[in-house]
Write the structure tokens for this entry.
Amino acid sequence: MRKWIVLVVLIVIGLIAYNYIYHKHRDIGSETAEFVVDSADLANEFTINPSASEKKYLNKTIEVLGTITELNDNDFTLDDNVFCQFTGKIELIKSKVVRVKGRFIGYDNLLEQVKLDQCSILTK
């Protein structure tokens, strides 16, 4: 009887470990944004209190409106203060106003930029 109990316990632990390690990744594109902000307001919030702002937004889906000031193949910067990284190549032009949704991953004190990844463009 003990062997069966040990076997059942091992199977349950194995299933929990498997589900913990191989859980589904978040699909930021299909999530509803928890915060909708303007890029200037977001940057101002981090200038005033970076640690509280980081706790507020960390790993949350946010929607940001701003003007593209720097553009690369798979990332761009909004108003010099919100860095948006995409999973694929993007085709846009500088000085265009866009609305972007992404996951907040941190604040870069050196560059004074908010960092978003897994971004998607909502309006072009």
